[in-house]
Amino acid sequence: MLKQSTVILKMAKARQYYTEFERSLLRELVSKQLHVVENKKTDFASIKKKSDVWVNLAKQFNAEIGVQQRNDKQLNKCCDNMKTRAKNDNTKERRERLQTDTLFIIPTLFGEEVGNMYYRPSIHLSVWNVVHLLLRSRSCAD
Q: Is the pTM here over 0.85, yes or no?
């Protein structure tokens, strides 16, 4: 009976989301220790130093007024999630920009203009595709 009640209590606990203030505070605190947090070394001394820095960051974070108490692992995971979201947003923006912003006119082939045909740089046009477009534009013009 005791196990069922603890399971119910665990399920009833609501997820605690980070507020915008908490995220900006975390960004500010991490930016001061970025040289340690983003260090790629994996030796014992570096890992120990990173762990100590995250514990210190958690203490500083929890000392602020208006934040929910978080431990070092939660803050580290939040920081990783923010980095991942930022990378995904940058990738999405870059893909959209490549697909819609830049259109190029097909250059003149064999001394004749192809016309108002455009292609996107993300689409590969082989020489045969361009020749086919040229021949099709000639037949439409005649």
A: no
